Automatic annotation (TrEMBL):
InterPro entries: DedA_domain (IPR051311), VTT_dom (IPR032816). The keyword Zinc-finger does not apply. Keywords: Cell membrane, Membrane, Transmembrane, Transmembrane helix. Residues 30-159 form the VTT domain. GO terms for cellular component: plasma membrane. Pfam families: VTT_dom. It is found in: Cell membrane. This is Alkaline phosphatase. The keyword Protein transport does not apply. It is a multi-pass membrane protein. The chain crosses the membrane at residues 12-30, 50-71, 140-160, 172-190.
Length: 202
């Protein structure tokens, strides 16, 4: 994976960073930690400037997250009801859960979007309910950009400091990402097997 990302960065420069970070937020298995870390290595070697690297990475992050926000906004939470009624068993959701999530985002959505920028997997997933709850577009973009800029700066700085040793870190990032994915899938299977509609609980 490192070789693939390095090739994109070498060929596309800042546009390559933008494209990779946008894709990372649409298809989460591509780790932003490696993308921005390798970008930091490029800064250390004089191939990029730190400010432009962070700007390109943050713009890509916002673009990728806006994709899922737009999907949620397009269908809205009311448009989701037929889907929930039919497939809620496999999502372990009932309509009351969707309404509660929507109310939560109306009240506290801004800081949730900001905080989730620092969490693997959730930083992408949070964009969908933000769109479904019709969070104001400016607010979503502002909080997404703010959280992403901080997180991307940390990752780029780590790559800048570690430089050549970053590839050693990549050996650990891959297994950790796989472990997190397996954990999420395992939790989902457990939820599906133990979930019961409210009418059948108690």
């Amino acid at each position: 994976m490192t070789a693939f990302i390095l090739e994109w960065i070498a060929r596309g420069g800042y546009w390559g960073i933008f494209a990779l970070m946008a894709l990372e937020n649409i298809v989460p298995p591509i780790p932003s930690e490696v993308i921005m870390g390798l970008g930091g290595m490029a800064v250390a070697r004089g191939h990029m400037q730190l400010g432009w690297l962070i700007a390109a990475g943050t713009a890509g992050t916002v673009a990728g997250n806006y994709f899922w926000y737009a999907v949620g906004r397009r269908f809205g939470y009311l448009g989701l009801r037929p889907f929930i009624d039919r497939w809620g068993r496999w999502l372990t959701l009932e309509w009351e859960d969707v309404e509660r999530i929507t109310r939560f985002f109306h009240d506290r959505g801004g800081w949730v979007v900001f905080v989730f920028r620092f969490m693997p997997t959730f930083r992408t997933m949070v964009s969908l309910p933000a769109g479904m709850s019709a969070m104001p577009r400016w607010k979503f973009l502002l909080w997404t950009a703010a959280g992403s800029a901080i997180w991307n700066s940390v990752l780029a700085a780590a790559g800048l400091i570690l430089d050549r040793r970053f590839q050693e870190l990549d050996r650990y990032v891959g297994p950790v990402a796989v472990a997190l994915t397996v954990g999420i899938v395992g939790f989902y299977i457990y939820r599906v097997m133990t979930w019961r509609p409210r009418a059948r609980r108690g």
